[in-house]
Amino acid sequence: MLDEVHELARSTAREFAERAVARVATRMDRDNAFPGEELAEAGKLRLISPMLPEELGGAGLDLRTAVVVLEELGRVSGGFSLLVEAVGTLFTHTLYKYGNSAHRDAVVPRVALGDAVGAFALSEPCCGSDAANIACSASREGGAWVIDGVKTWITGGLHADYFLVATRTGPREARHRAITVFLVKRGKCVRTSPIEVMGMRGSGTAEVRLEGCEVGEDDVVGSVDGGFDVITYALNVGRTAISGVALGVARGAYEEALEWARGREIYGRRLIDLQNTQFELADMLASIETGRALAYYSAYLYDSRRRDFVLYTHVAKLYTARMAVDVTRRAMQLEGGYGYSKESRVERLYRDAKLLEIGEGTNEVQKHVIYRIIERGIDGLHMEL
Ligand SMILES: Cc1cc2nc3c(=O)[nH]c(=O)nc-3n(C[C@H](O)[C@H](O)[C@H](O)COP(=O)(O)OP(=O)(O)OC[C@H]3O[C@@H](n4cnc5c(N)ncnc54)[C@H](O)[C@@H]3O)c2cc1C
After folding, report:
1. 376 lines ligand 1 (CB under 6 A)
2. Which residue's alpha carbon is nearest to atom 31 within ligand 1?
3. What is the Cα 31 distance to its own chain's centre?
4. How close is the Cα of 235 to the center of ligand 1, in Å?
5. N or C: which end of the chain has fewer CB within 10 A?
6. 76/24 Cα distance (integer angstroms)
7. Is the CB–ligand 1 distance for residue 234 below 6 Å?
8. Would you give the end-to-end CA distance of the chain in angstroms?
9. CA 362 to ligand 1: nearest atom
10. Which of 89, 153, 154, 165 to mutate to test the pocket of ligand 1 (most atoms within 8 A of CB)?
11. 368: Cβ below 6 Å to ligand 1?
């Protein structure tokens, strides 16, 4: 499913991750510091949104490339990889798909090239999984729309210049049929504050308050009351992309544990000479490779515009998130006290991994969608490709 173009993107991402992301990874985690310079460099290397056409700041490639890039970034820092995924896939790719020509010309390339930051603002204090119940409102006042509400847990939100904001444009009972997405530029009406999180630190997780934000008809992304299609599309693509983050987090932990086991002496021999260690490493690798096969296949289905992508994107997200949590836990166990210390990368990746079972739909939400496919078949799900 991967050819030499994907492998070339992998080597660019790996070189960048080992040189630039490794330098900032500990500081991101320790100080919750945002890697603004490194994000800008990722943009210049066309790693933020490789699916976009070259003239818009992408690399003219596909979702498989995005997965491979996120895998390489995640191997060094889950937080950096998650940030690139949210900026490049949830925000930029969605705006490219549903925005108008002004959005495409003025905003998409700036964010894709790392000259500005974009964030995808759906979740609210009231509603994460139950996204159809959001309360943040947009009301028509004269020729404008006025947005009021609170978004929470927004990746990159602390430093974002632009937000894709999901709003309610009709009665709450209308649920997903009265949601509209707007492009909102940071201004006086937007206030952001940092949220302290367990893992994925430094990715700019924020609460975003919108108070009387005036936007125009031209700022609608997609159509009025048609915002749920935009959200569904973004999350369907995002769930395969974030599987790449999970692959990277798991691989980073596995590789460190392997090296540790080769170097650690125990009972007068090497830790790796114990059969349990070998079996643990074999199990970890088998799970990582299963996750890889799933994530690459899901991306391939998207790239081929096949409808069964919708099933595989949820299967890949569910499997790789659980796999990353399991592999990082096993890696820590193999490393003993060292694994639990701040010296090891595994300690950080273990905390990063847990978010993967929550963000972009919890495990239960993935299962909910998979079960709907069991009941209704793929054609029973609305999905634009
Ligand atoms: C670090 C971080 C970054 C994030 N980044 C973003 C972002 O960039 N943009 C954004 O919009 N959001 C973002 N989120 C929010 C994330 O998508 C939500 O946290 C997630 O969707 C879960 O929603 P919730 O937290 O409201 O939990 P709830 O929806 O309240 O879920 C509570 C529990 O109920 C379970 N549950 C839900 N539905 C069902 C069901 N049908 N059956 C059984 N159980 C169910 C859940 O699995 C969970 O265990 C981020 C979150 C974090 C922590």
Report:
1. no
2. 129
3. 21
4. 13
5. C
6. 10
7. no
8. 19
9. 47
10. 153
11. yes
Q: What residue ranges define each of the domains in the chain, with the CATH number in brackets?
A: 4-117 (1.10.540.10), 120-225 (2.40.110.10), 228-380 (1.20.140.10)
CA of 244 to the centre of ligand 1 (A): 19
The DSSP code sequence of 88-153 is IIIIIIHHHHHS-HHIIIIIHHHHHTTSS-EEEE---SS-SS-GGG---EEEEETTEEEEEEEEEE
Distances (CA, A) of 165 to 90, 91, 235: 12, 10, 14
pLDDT tens by residue, the chain, 385 residues: 999 999 999 999 999 999 999 999 999 999 999 999 999 999 999 999 999 999 999 999 999 999 999 999 999 999 999 999 999 999 999 999 999 999 999 999 999 999 999 999 999 999 999 999 999 999 999 999 999 999 999 999 999 999 999 999 999 999 999 999 999 999 999 999 999 999 999 999 999 999 999 999 999 999 999 999 999 999 999 999 999 999 999 999 999 999 999 999 999 999 999 999 999 999 999 999 999 999 999 999 999 999 999 999 999 999 999 999 999 999 999 999 999 999 999 999 999 999 999 999 999 999 999 999 999 998 877 667 7
Residue 202's beta-bridge partner residues?
none
- Residues with active-site annotation: 360
Q: How far apart are CA 300 and CA 359, in angstroms?
A: 23
Q: Are 344 and 252 in contact (CB under 8 A)?
A: no
Q: Is 155 in the pocket of ligand 1 (CB under 6 A)?
A: yes
Residue nearest to ligand 1 atom 25, measured at CA: 128
